[in-house]
Amino acid sequence: MSEISSSTVQTLQSFYQGLITLKEDRTTYIRTADVLSKYEVLGDLLRAHEEQYGAFETEDSNEEPKGSDQLESERLLHDCFLLISLLFLTIGKNMEPPATYAPSVVIKRLLRHLTESDSFCSKDLLPILQILRQNKETVINNGSTYNLRVISLLDSRINKCLEAVKPLQDKLDQISPQLLGIHERLVSLRRCIKGAEARKKFSEPEVMGYLDQIKQLDATRIDGKFVGDDGTIPEDGQDQVLLVLERSYVTAEDALTGQGAISPGLSHIAEKLAKIKYKLEKLELTQAWSLRETDLYNYMVELVAIDDQRVGRKFVAEDGSCPDEGQSIILYLLRRSYAHVYTLMVSSEAVSEALTPIFNQLQTVRRCLQEVKKFGIQDARELYPYSMKLSSIDNMKVDGKFMVGNDIPEGQGRVASLLAECFEICQNLRTDERLETTP
């Protein structure tokens, strides 16, 4: 049995290295055929694992201790599914079941931290619920065309995320709708304070400004009760909102006392997370031009490694201690980094990497034309540069398709629709110009 176990692990290790090689090859676009081929092999590897160890689960369980080979096999399978999922996003197959694995991984982490912090609002949960329901629909509607073991795994992961959302949503449901507004503002102010505390240069006036806003909300209470958005004083949710108010005061006090200080033993973790957060923020600004979705794998691995090294929810210093100074700052950096990874995943366009340059050019042309549209044109010749660019892109098509070598990359409909929209804007501008100049 141990020889078989070792063989399974070795096969997975070899397959994993192949995915890493594919991910890191920047000399060419990632081909759809290569990704689909890798996916088929991964389905076989999942079957081999489950025949040997039973159902593949990446969550902690209270079952019997697992052997080292099984744990390693599960770790490798998880990483392989994460990579395959990101590869599906890279080639524009966003609405295919395998693409749902990566979002479910980061969503589970986000929900775990929302539960731990016990500080969240409807704006946190609604987008997550929307993505989970959309992904579940994707898995159900396309289940018959994919490996049933893989579909079962993906559906299970989404269901566990939905289960994790429920107790959070139940807590919010206990708050009167009229108090949700003030609850949301307090949650937001508390996060703003944490964000100010985590900056390289601590600004006491900024924190004091947030504290003043908290006091203003506190001052609106009548006989100790919060007033709803409609002017009423509902009973449901008063205790929950009061708890957030009290925590907001504590957060502000801690920030003003600590002044952004971080224990020297924890500074290496804070510096690493600050760099990750900065890179992810930069990617959000330049996503269309610089992001290959598989790049998010490295960030996720780093974040999860830091997260899982916590002991009793605290980060461990180099000497093995868990100093309090800087814990909340590091936790904020970690959570914000997870949030940035999530945003980059779910905002990924359903366009293959191979078509992304064309898609980006068309988006730029559309933005320019929309600006021109605001003021109109005096002469149709003003549209000449845009028409030339659109015609040059249109002429790249072969038999109505944008080709890259012999491949027909994903995202044809999205690119064709954007091209047609740009042509339409140009035509409308010409029509408007003729009508204005006609006596």
What is the element layout, followed by pairings?
Layout: H1 2-24, H2 32-53, H3 68-90, H4 101-117, H5 122-141, H6 148-173, H7 180-197, H8 204-219, H9 238-258, H10 267-290, H11 296-308, H12 327-346, H13 356-375, H14 384-394, E1 397-398, E2 401-402, H15 412-437
Antiparallel strand pairs: 1-2
Describe the structure concisely for a colleague.
The protein has 15 helices and two strands. 68% of the residues lie in helices and 1% in strands.
The residue fraction in helices comes out at 55-70%
Rg from Cα:
26 Å
Which sheet architecture does the biggest sheet show?
2 strands, antiparallel
Number of strands: 2
Within the largest sheet, what's the order of strands?
1-2
Order of helices and strands: HHHHHHHHHHHHHHEEH
Assembly type of the chains comes to: single chain
Low-confidence stretches: none
Report the total helices: 15
The gross shape turns out to be: globular
The averaged pLDDT comes out at 90
Strand content: under 5%
Secondary structure class reads mainly alpha
N-to-C CA distance: 90 Å
